[in-house]
Amino acid sequence: MQEEVENRTVNLAISTTRLTVRTIIAGIRKFLQYQEKKKAQKGRDPAVHGKQSVKKLLGQNQGAANAEIEKEGIKDFERLAKKYGVDFAVRKDKTVDPPRYFVFVRAKDSDALDAICKEYQARAMTKDKKPSVLAQLSKFKNLVASLPKKIREKKQERDL
User: Fold this and answer.
1) Would the pTM count as exceeding 0.90?
2) Rg of the chain's alpha carbons, rounded to an integer?
3) Pfam families in the record, alphabetically (predicted)?
């Protein structure tokens, strides 16, 4: 009886060990598969989106459309292009005395360029309609300066 119990115990220990070794080997295999998958993903050349160089934009072989933009409007254009998910490149033309800026967009995104231009113009119009904060500030400064100043008397009385 004792010998039978010992044999069962040994068999249980051996089967448990085999199970653990199999589990460890399976885990290592999964990890190696994950590493290879990650390496393969890294190896692919991800498509560049948003702001990029003209060379990269034209390298996508989809043609390009361009539009002229003012220097002050570049940041606003970048925000709107990011909103619409457009790939673009900004190029400075130094041949003209006040330099001009051109925005190149993929030909496929030319409809989005039209929408961006419309929204940019609408924002510019509302910006012109807004009153100047500095003008209002100077107006209120003059108003405050014209008001009579309060005269405070500093007296301390002591009570006993």
Assistant:
1) no
2) 36
3) DUF3801
